[in-house]
Design a protein that fits this description.
Length: 175
């Protein structure tokens, strides 16, 4: 799905918090990969569980590992470049029913285009384009509220644990 927007793609809005990848690790309980995003201005973290293939695509780019042939996210980058488009930012825009949603903002032929995406795919592209990663403030608030529910005592504990991990504990992006 795509839509054209008047919002400048490279501009951060007041509803967005700039994040960086703090780490990529395996959830010891579910054995699923987690991308840990961290607010660049604070210690706030946002864990996002992703699929193994998407985590691998992110890990390859974080480690700057070359592959003999283009992987899917490399193909998407090459396709965008071939069409003279530029990915300017990605935004984790929504949390609905425990599922995160993202938008890839790009410029093409003078128009700003927003593409619906999974956060893992959007992050993999953001790394390849070296563009900023944002999270909507409402998503951060909703994830905090979800963490404050009855069974979320462990989610709060996990958030605190993630905030205090050092680089060795985060696995240095190894999958």
């Amino acid at each position: 799905m795509s839509l054209t927007s008047t919002q400048p793609a490279a501009t951060q809005t007041s509803d967005e918090v700039e994040m960086q990848i703090r780490g990529l690790m395996m959830d010891p309980i579910t054995n699923m990969p987690i991308i840990v995003l961290k607010d660049i201005a604070s210690d706030l973290v946002l864990p996002i569980w992703v699929g193994i293939f998407e985590a691998n695509a992110i890990a390859l780019e974080l480690e700057k590992t070359a592959t003999p042939r283009p992987m899917t996210h490399d193909l998407l980058q090459n396709l965008a470049r071939g069409l003279n488009a530029q990915v300017n930012k990605i935004v984790v825009s929504e949390l609905r029913d425990d599922t995160f949603y993202a938008v890839i903002w790009l410029d093409h032929a003078g128009e700003t285009v927003a593409l619906d995406a999974r956060p893992s795919d959007a992050i993999a592209l953001a790394l390849r384009w070296d563009c900023p990663i944002y999270v909507n403030r409402e998503v951060l608030e909703n994830s905090k509220q979800a963490a404050s529910g009855a069974q979320a005592v462990t989610a709060d504990e996990m958030r605190r644990w993630l905030e205090n991990l050092n680089d060795d504990e985060m696995g240095r992006y190894k999958m």
